[in-house]
Specification:
By secondary structure, the protein is α+β, with helices and mostly antiparallel strands. The protein has one helix and four strands; from the N terminus they run E-H-E-E-E. The strands form two sheets. A two-stranded parallel ribbon has the order 1-2.
């Protein structure tokens, strides 16, 4: 049975943690979501600083791991 996970990041620190987690997952599995897991994200922040689609801090190994619009 596959486990479902819902990860919530609130504010700047929450966003940094989600970003680091997604980068680690991408480094390990070379995809944004491991095949054996169901991951969903919610990132809430009053500042648009880290939420821009072109934010380079979300890139790893030339690939963006930015959350989709539905998760922000």
């Amino acid at each position: 049975m596959n486990a479902n996970h819902f990860l919530i990041g609130i504010g700047g620190t929450g966003g940094k943690i989600l970003r680091a987690l997604r980068k680690t997952i991408f480094q390990e599995f070379r995809k944004k979501t491991p095949t054996a897991q169901v991951l969903a994200y919610l990132y809430v922040d009053s500042s648009d600083e880290m939420m821009a689609l072109d934010d380079p801090t979300w890139k790893i190994l030339g690939t963006s791991v930015q959350l989709n619009k539905r998760s922000r």
